[in-house]
Design brief:
signal; Transferrin-binding protein B C-lobe/N-lobe beta barrel domain-containing protein; mainly beta
Amino acid sequence: MTRIATKLTTTGLGLIAVLGLSACGGSSMSPTTGPGAGPGTGPGGNPALEPNVGDATEVQAIRDSINEGLGFRENDNLFGPRNGDAVYSGQWITGLEIENQPEVNALVGEVRMLVDIGGGRNPVSGEISNLNTLQNNRAIELLTGDLDISGNIGGINRRFDSGAEFLGTVSGYFGGDTLENLQINADVSGGWRDSIVGGDPGNVIAGRTTGTANGTPGLGLVDITNGQFRADRDSGT
């Protein structure tokens, strides 16, 4: 994941992490058909995509950076342009429990968040891409599909309004032999934070997520837990 590597080396690990969501049974979604997802080889000999998140040290650095971001001071002001688009980049990690694939216990993905700054309620859009399954800090598989980011951030407390969410469907083998789908609907909380006391207010957005997940029948019951994220404002935006 090129962007992750950049954040680790240039911004003191600007990243995101872990979702707290409720358990939900398998849905009526149909498994994806056709050939395998890619050239990699999964545990059961399936053509799962090889992960692109890096080694266990990098995954732990993502976790640490997200926790750091959640500890930054919340603020009421913003640095940089007060009108126009501001881009925030980072990562999100969520715990993940799959009844029929217990070796998978987390997801990590890249966040690109676009904030339309104009005063009042500021619309937020973007996506979470390059989602990888994890076993603790060991990457297992790169999934296909992205999550859309939507909602508003702003107001007096510079926090996400109710209704902000990460939403979408991803596909992969999740450690098994069959291509499966997983639909995620995560509610977002959190807001702007200041990583430098007395300077660059609002240069980080960090928060937590809760919600639900539904998978194709082969996954069994799915529970997404302990969701957290961090994204740092790109220079020049």
